[in-house]
Amino acid sequence: SDEDEIVLTAADRFVPRERPRPEPARPAGATPYALRVRHPGLSYELVWEETPAPAPPGPDEVLVDVRASALNYRDIMKAVGLLPVEACVDAAEAASVGLECAGVVLACGPGVTDFAPGDRVVGMTYSACASHALMQPAKMWRLSDSVSFAEAAAAPIAVSTVQYGLGELARLRPGETVLVHGAAGGVGLAAVAYATLKGARVIATAGSDLKRTFLRSLGVEHVLDSRTLDFAEQVRAITGGQGVDVVLNSLAGEAMARSLELLRSGGRFVELGKRDFYENKPLLLRPFTKNISYFGADVSQVPDHCFPRMRAEMGDLTGGSAHVKVPHTAFPAARVAEAFALLQHSRHIGKVVITYDPLDEPLLIEERPAPPRLDPEGSYLVTGGTGGFGAATACWLAELGARHLALVSRSGERAPEAAATAARLAELGARVSVHAADVTDPRAVRAVLAELEAAGRPLRGIAHAAMHLDDATLSELSEERIRATLAPKMAGAQVLESAAAEAGAELDLFLLHSSGTTLIGNIKQAPYVGANLYLEALARRRRQRGEAALA
């Protein structure tokens, strides 16, 4: 075959492959979870991950048990890697999925008087595609029992965007004409309802025959094709050459420029699309000679003080409830990949909603890898611990709760980074002892373990980071140079294991630093790669015996 690396064993024939190790998954139950996007880009992967138990809500916060959440194009842009980091409010928002959800209030923080546990609610928040969400009362609405959670989740972003764009910014008035692009989407359908309620005339566009037929079934008189630029001349014909008063735009490129030219004197252009913004596309200024206004609308950036007015306006729009019947397509959480694909290819009408119902298809949750539980009364020995990977490992152990660390290197306290490493560990709350010992010398290692035992801090873990590099092609290396590279890793690991066993140490950690070169090779590091292969074999042997080990 084309394979050039093959291992033949008594058991089977093997070839090397590197794959992400899947985390264990279990059915959703009481475990909190959230949706995460791995490997953003064209080959993105969606996974439901276990999350920590939700903390009690703080002041002006409400904890909600989420029953449905809606997707937006912003979520798709994150998944495919088109949303720049600067477009996100903070790192938490950049890593989250979902902006709106509906559910039941579990708890209210201090100062919250509008809601109580048990209330059915809908609202906007980051990381809405999750089992639990923290929300702000100003961005929430109470639901009546007649409204389903899926129905409700489809409304907040769409209705808020329309109220902010057409109400706050464009100040749409009765008798005016508004051009709504992408009118079969969630925002578009809410815009058609809003404009109709305000007594405005609607001209709509959509990208498929199915969507245009749907809009006509709602009573929209003028429905045009958004996939060609012919809509511009058609709008002029419909308006008798006058153009429109307001454009609610989601088209990019030339279609956006043509739409800007359709505004009559005093017109207002409300831009909802983000791609041209993030690509910093230029905007032609000639249309602005007609006293027109251009607004970039993003409801996620709306100041908090605007929401009370928007809530009141939305109440009027929805006939006194906090819900607009935006058509939607619902997917159980287990089929979230299908939901993303539908939205990504714009094959939907209205909104795409994710539901979290115990009666839906079983949902598998990836467990969070649990950090090691370290014994604060025991000692943890780190070879090569006075600098480099060893020092970093010692600090990591201290952060995990280790309170007694023994750092071993041939130079001991004379090592250049020893003092700085000890000081850093002291800041993390750990007591440090530094030992000068050759890890390949059994007597020296036994002496270090005896010191730890005498101090009443028995050995509980070993992290082996000692190493020696001597990069050269194999033909240039002498036996002596090869042995010098092999010894710290191979002999050191064997000595550590044997000495710990002789001392009767019960180890909860046996960590061996290997290398990515062990899998792919390195033409000038043959002994180093060989030493790491030994460490991985040692870890496998220990695991087979039921002992702690990780390479």
UniProtKB/TrEMBL annotation:
<dbReference type="Pfam" id="PF08659">
    <property type="entry name" value="KR"/>
</dbReference>
<keyword id="KW-0597">Phosphoprotein</keyword>
<feature type="domain" description="Ketoreductase">
    <location>
        <begin position="378"/>
        <end position="551"/>
    </location>
</feature>
<dbReference type="Pfam" id="PF00107">
    <property type="entry name" value="ADH_zinc_N"/>
</dbReference>
<dbReference type="InterPro" id="IPR013149">
    <property type="entry name" value="ADH-like_C"/>
</dbReference>
<dbReference type="InterPro" id="IPR011032">
    <property type="entry name" value="GroES-like_sf"/>
</dbReference>
<dbReference type="InterPro" id="IPR013968">
    <property type="entry name" value="PKS_KR"/>
</dbReference>
<feature type="region of interest" description="Disordered">
    <location>
        <begin position="1"/>
        <end position="31"/>
    </location>
</feature>
<dbReference type="InterPro" id="IPR050091">
    <property type="entry name" value="PKS_NRPS_Biosynth_Enz"/>
</dbReference>
<dbReference type="InterPro" id="IPR036291">
    <property type="entry name" value="NAD(P)-bd_dom_sf"/>
</dbReference>
<feature type="domain" description="Enoyl reductase (ER)">
    <location>
        <begin position="41"/>
        <end position="354"/>
    </location>
</feature>
<protein>
    <recommendedName>
        <fullName>Enoyl reductase (ER) domain-containing protein</fullName>
    </recommendedName>
</protein>
<dbReference type="Pfam" id="PF08240">
    <property type="entry name" value="ADH_N"/>
</dbReference>
<dbReference type="InterPro" id="IPR013154">
    <property type="entry name" value="ADH-like_N"/>
</dbReference>
<feature type="compositionally biased region" description="Basic and acidic residues">
    <location>
        <begin position="14"/>
        <end position="24"/>
    </location>
</feature>
<dbReference type="InterPro" id="IPR057326">
    <property type="entry name" value="KR_dom"/>
</dbReference>
<keyword id="KW-0596">Phosphopantetheine</keyword>
<dbReference type="InterPro" id="IPR020843">
    <property type="entry name" value="ER"/>
</dbReference>
